[in-house]
Amino acid sequence: MKSSESNFNLNLIILNMKSKILFFVMLLVLAGTFAMQSCKKEAPVANTPYLAAMPGTPVPSNYAIIPFTASGQAVNLSWAGTATNAITWNVYFGTSSTPPKVATVTSNAYTAHIGTLGGKYYWGLTTVDANGLESDSPTWSFIVHSAPTAPATPSPALNATGVSNTATLTWAATDPESFALSYDLLLGTAATPVVKVGIGLTTASYTVPTALSANTVYYWQVIAKDGYGGNTTGPIWKFTTGPLPINTFVGNYSVAEPAEGWSYPISFTLNSTTSIKTTNYWASGWTAIFNIDLNAQTYSMPLTTFSGGYSAVETGVINKTTGKMTGEYTIWSGTSVAETGLHTYTHQ
Q1: Which of 47, 84, 135, 207 is deepest in the core (most CB within 10 A)?
Q2: pTM, to two decimals
């Protein structure tokens, strides 16, 4: 009995131990299960930040140059940019590099107005959405280019007389933004000149390439251009040319031949802009042409054949103011020298 009872008790103890072990194992399994479930749980979703769109693609583009048209000129500003929520734009505009706020708009456009002259203007934007989120643009700029000043201080002066027929015309004009200017020049005998004798001149001067007519009224006008659409037309000026310088040598002369001890009358008429002509050379009724060089202050008659088998050459110096000519001549009869000497032509 005791042995059976002991066996029973032992079996009971073993059973109890197995039950406890099973309990602990189940606890461990449940704990592992909870741990595994905890590891499989999804990570929390991060909040998506909402930002207002960055303004971009400015019109006028950054550093653009716009022609000046009038005081208070309108300049249409526009840009790109949208937002997922209701949006407004704060617009900043002015002549300062940190322009002040001038408006709040609900579309991608704003009409600004400049002052009485051109110059450099700055502008920028702040995007504001319904949540109060803001994005700032860069500060952009553009230049409104003022028209040049009207050409002035003409030379020859207005109503000048006795102007050279090879005159150089000059004037003055400036550009408010110091850009280079070019010029168109109108010149003619009509009171309203229409012929452009110079186009795109890069200096404020023009030398007439062909001699102007003597004793003639000429009208001229200059258009100053800045290359950006700013053109300014100056007033119409006028001047009157004097007689051709060579006209000093036209008229009646007394010709002296000291070696011969006598003198005789002679007359010169204008043959061209650089030559004069007489029909009584050597007091012989011969036609002769003198070429006048006003720069070198000389005259010359090339070898010329006359009637009766005579020929002659003559060269000398001139006085541009008085018209006096003094030179040496040689006259041949056939192949023999008939006479050499000095001619002095004194204007009467």
Answers
A1: 135
A2: 0.55
Which two tokens mark 279? 């029909």
Residues 156 and 205 sit within 8 Å (Cβ to Cβ): no
The whole-angstrom separation of Cα 67 and Cα 145 is 5
Contact between 123 and 140 under an 8 Å Cβ cutoff? The reply is yes
Cβ-proximal residues to 266 (8 Å cutoff; 6+ apart), any chain: 252, 253, 254, 255, 278, 280, 281, 283, 345
Environment class of residue 126 by beta-carbon count within 10 Å: exposed (0-12), middle (13-18) or buried (19+)?
Answer: middle
Backbone torsion region of residue 116, taken as left when φ is above 0, otherwise alpha when ψ lies between -120 and 50, otherwise beta: alpha
Structure tokens at 16: 């109890």
Please name the amino acid found at residue 196: K
220-259: pLDDT as tens digits: 999 999 888 889 999 999 999 988 889 899 999 999 999 8
pLDDT digits (tens, 9 = 90+) for 283-330: 999 999 999 998 899 999 999 999 999 999 999 999 988 999 999 999
Taking the C-alpha atoms of residue 328 and residue 343, their distance in angstroms, rounded to an integer, is: 6
Burial of 312 (0-12, 13-18, 19+ CB in 10 A): buried
- Sorted by where each starts, the structural domains of the chain and their CATH numbers stand as 56-145 (2.60.40.10), 152-241 (2.60.40.10), 245-347 (2.40.128)
